[in-house]
From TrEMBL:
Keywords: Signal. It comes from the Bacteria. Residues 29-72 form the LysM domain. The keyword Signal applies. InterPro entries: Cell_wall_hydrolase_SleB, LysM, LysM_dom_sf, SleB_dom1. GO terms for molecular function: hydrolase activity. The keyword Signal applies. This is N-acetylmuramoyl-L-alanine amidase. Transmembrane segments: none annotated. It comes from Halobacillus dabanensis. Residues 1-19 form the signal peptide. Pfam families: Hydrolase_2 (PF07486), LysM (PF01476).
Length: 193
């Protein structure tokens, strides 16, 4: 009763299933508060700190109300963390550790922003945003320092959601970016919102 499926068809389906797993995984998360929940319970459920949930939602205390929509930090899969680490390595090679954390933070801020795709994969592969995606250097392995910078940026989501752009003015000129407000300068990179 079963039709024979060509082996090549199965192989193609498997390749597609594994080629794009990051496209649907780490997305901008929200949680609708239910009766009886607390920030502590919500944070524990998602494996993040209560302070981070408060920071993500600009809360000075732990008061929440049923029906309230809370923003939650991006929680990437292992492959997404690797992708972000490789982007940081390629974009900020030769920059300070703080510069690497800031580059990772820009990507995470974009996932949270309504101006960009709501997944790590989507932000990183969004058109011509990042030159390492275009020139293939994103495929090189990340250093231990870049991986640590990504971990730090993930741990501090919500504490500095301002920068959405960065560039090296010695290597690129942009009238679009020149109209943006500078948030900080770290090494050769200018960060903007």
């Amino acid at each position: 009763m079963f039709k024979k499926i060509p082996l090549a068809g199965i192989a193609a389906a498997c390749m597609l299933a594994f080629a794009f797993p990051a496209a649907i995984s780490a997305q901008a998360n929200t949680h609708t508060v239910q009766k009886g929940e607390s920030i502590y319970k919500i944070a524990k459920e998602y494996g993040v700190s209560t302070h981070q949930v408060q920071a993500m939602n600009n809360k000075s205390n732990a008061s929440i109300f049923p029906g309230e929509e809370l923003k939650l930090p991006v929680i990437p899969s292992k492959s997404e963390k690797d992708l972000l680490s490789r982007l940081v390595e390629a974009e900020a090679k030769g920059e300070s550790y703080a510069g690497k954390v800031a580059v990772a933070t820009v990507v995470l801020n974009r996932v949270e922003s309504d101006l960009f795709p709501n997944s790590l994969y989507g932000v990183i592969h969004d058109g011509i945003q990042f030159s390492p995606v275009l020139n293939g250097t994103i495929n090189q392995p990340a250093s231990a320092e870049s991986k640590q910078a990504v971990d730090e940026a993930l741990a501090y989501q919500g504490y500095g959601r301002e920068s959405l752009f960065f560039y090296n003015p010695d290597k690129a000129q942009s009238s679009y970016l020149s109209s943006k407000e500078v948030t900080t300068v770290i090494g050769d990179h200018v960060f903007l919102r």
